[in-house]
Specification:
Structural class of chain B: mainly alpha
Keywords (chain A): Cell membrane, Membrane, Transmembrane, Transmembrane helix
CATH architecture of one domain in chain A: Orthogonal Bundle
Largest sheet of chain A: none
Main location (chain A): membrane
Largest interface: A-B, 49 and 50 residues
GO molecular function, one term (chain A): transmembrane transporter activity
Protein name (chain A): Nucleoside ABC transporter membrane protein
Distance between the termini of chain A: 26 Å
Subcellular location (chain A): Cell membrane
Strand content of chain A: under 5%
Shape of chain B: globular
Oligomer: heterodimer
Number of domains of chain B: 1
Helix content of chain A: over 70%
Number of helices of chain A: 16
Number of helices of chain B: 14
Chain lengths: 373, 322
Amino acid sequence: MDVMPKWADVVLIPLISLLLAAALSAVVILAIGENPWNALKIMVEGSLGSTYGWGYTLYYATNFIFTGLAVAIAFHARMFNIGGEGQAVLGGLGVALVCLYIPFPHWSLALVAASVGAAIFGAGWAIIPAYLQAKRGSHIVITTIMFNFIAAALLNYLLVGALKPAGSMEPATGKFLPGTHLPSFQEMFSTADTVLFRGAPANVSFFVAIAACVVIWALIWRTRLGYEIRAFGHSESAAKYAGISPTKIIVISMSISGALAGMMAINNVMGEAERLVLNAVEGAGFIGIAVALMGRSHPFGVFLAAILFGFLYQGGAELALWTSIPRELIVVIQALVILFTGALDNMVRMPLERFFLARRRAAKPKPKLTPAE
Amino acid sequence: MDLLTLLQLLDSAVRLATPLLLACIAGLYSERAGIFDIGLEGKMLAAAFLSAAVAYTTGNVWIGLLAGIGASLLLSAIHGIASITFRGNQLISGVAINFLAAGLTVVIAQSWFAQGGRTPQLAGAARFNPITLPFADALRDVPVIGPIYYELISGHTALVYVALVIVPLTWWILYATRFGLRLRAVGENPAAVDTAGVSVVGLRFAAVGICGVLCGIAGAYLATALQAGFTKDMSAGRGYIALAALIFAKWKPWPCLWATLLFGLLQALALRPDLIQRTLGFSVQTQLLDALPYILTVVILAGFVGKAIPPRAGGEPYVKER
């Protein structure tokens, strides 16, 4: 029997971890001579106070939903996919190849094709480590880390070579074809007299991300495959005994994971930059780890955590603009969230468990011992 | 390629291999004791920053070195508490430490020096300066041996020699002392160590502590010997290359030296594309050289060239009783 009620596990622990991370971040802000309350106000104002701010917050959140889902589904199979970064780089390559060379009559077709391209490239980059884990026993964490670096080198190679337009000095591809322009929130929601989300990069791929959450939820809890993935994650030996092939689960769950990480590229490469540049992923693959941990590997949790990190990212940019706090503060907060929700989970959990146990004992008095005992 | 160019290339390989070697041996202690550590990168970075900052402020590089070791040890303590005391996920803890270091170093550097997340340039006694070994100048003109001694062996900073001494020392500790035997045992079968009445927690904390000290030296080397000051993200993936080298070396001290020297040579070659062009007659993409350590590691890890078997209890927290 679980010691804690479910709501405590799902809501209370992440919340306490978040508060701990926030408190420590406040200490850091105090230590460098700024006012944490003031900083929080600037962050909220800058990321949630206007449709412009929301446009950025949701743009970042879209990236993090994809990478967070990617890490989450791998977590369900007890795989730690730390290679979201590399898979997203390859996803960008897939998007670029689709958008550079195929003329599309309408953006919706382009979006479908680019999503497929991104997913295939991302999944392809994840399948190799998955296969090596399943068949050769090489540790997936190490291999996916190595693949991040190999991906970076590969992209670097392509962007200074084959993909760079002739005459250009910058390591980037040319502009994508015009038919691939995705409608931004500004184009979608502005009316004739009020312009909303002016200049913000949020675009239609946000809704693709939400759809991905629903699909992944259905996949994990409503399909046979999802059941097998979860069974494998809980106990490999039991899953094997039940006739579930470990190789199949590792390869399939990792390729779904890689596909999701790769699909991030429809947002940042196709939706925002409209060309492929070096370092387009900007660490979003790693933030996926924090998002998945915070969201307890549940698609809805991932969605909320992604919005939270979107807020932190946009807020952090505003902070760097208005105060002397550098943007890297967000990296610190991210690290603290990963630390408390991931590695120090037991530190938060153990006292809470004791508390709930004590409460339950108090509520239910011990049965009287019979004389025979 | 003439002898002098070759020696210069090897010299630069040694200089670039040193931080890799120190971090690799650091990882060796930790992983041999059963604690995975992908936080080598973060610990090096934190040490690089604090050593440069303190060396600049005090003007003494040795105090800087101590401060760097301190910073690295602090992160090691977090890793130890998370993965040993609270039996958390060691990999996630390592990831957190890497980000913590990447963020905090820039935030603190910015508020301390206000130079865009860097420390000021170090000079004079605030840096480790090259040491000319005895007779290097006198022997310089002796053919073959002279240049090898002068160019390659002499003229490094103190930490390079420290790193080279640490390899046999580690070999001795690991295979010839009681502590080393226990350290290896705790990474293979902690229950047996516990049954023998030796503290698993104590041994693992000791290993994580040694790892912290060595990462501290590696980081200090980056900022105060290889370069003159701290710059943002200056560890540049070296912690991960060290991890790769550790697997390449199959968790053994001497192979660690060869693996890091090889990876150092690859880095040195990536800096001199003209040399490859001249020697091989065709140019090799520097990106390929950059990626080669990682590709080699994947190949080794996949068991295509000899099997790399990690310590058996690696990554698993030890629970004393069920």
